[in-house]
Every structure is written in structure tokens, then in C-alpha cells.
User: Fold this.
Amino acid sequence: MNILKTCHTLLSSFGPTTKGSTAIEYALIASLIAIAILGGIESLSGGISSLFSSISTAIE
Assistant:
């Protein structure tokens, strides 16, 4: 009987845990937000560059 309890305790320690899943989910969300920000900056960079070029030309 005591051996069965020991085996059950040992085997249950290998069961599924959710300790690290929250950290992984937050890391995935943060990486997706970073990718979205970088994509937005990439798409706006051409327009901002041409805006500053036109302002520079107007000042001269």
C-alpha cells in the first residue's frame, strides 16, 4: 500500500503543469505587438521621408 502511494506521488509529479504558460502567452503577445509596431513604422517611413524632403526644399 505504501509503495502504491509512493508510485502515485512520483507519477503525478510528471503530470501537466501550467506554471510557465502565462509567461509564454505574455511573451507571444508582446512579440506580436512588436512586429505590428515595426510593420507600422516601416510603412510610414517612406511618407515621413518625403514629407521632410518637401519641407527642406520649401525652406531653401
Q: What stands out?
A: The CA atoms of residues 35 and 41 lie 10 Å apart.
